[in-house]
Amino acid sequence: MSALPRAHELGLIGCHVCGLVCRDTPMDDAACPRCGSALHRRKTASYARTWALLIAGFLLYIPANVLPIMRTASLGDVDDNTIISGVMELWNKGSPDLAVIVFTASILVPMTKFFVLTTLLVSARRGSNWARPQRAKLYRLVEFIGYWSMLDVFVVALLTALVQFGIFSLVAPLPGVIFFGLTVVLTMLASMSFDPRLIWDGRTDDD
Question: Which of 2, 75, 202, 204 sits a CA distance of 20 to 30 A from 100?
Answer without folding.
Answer: 75
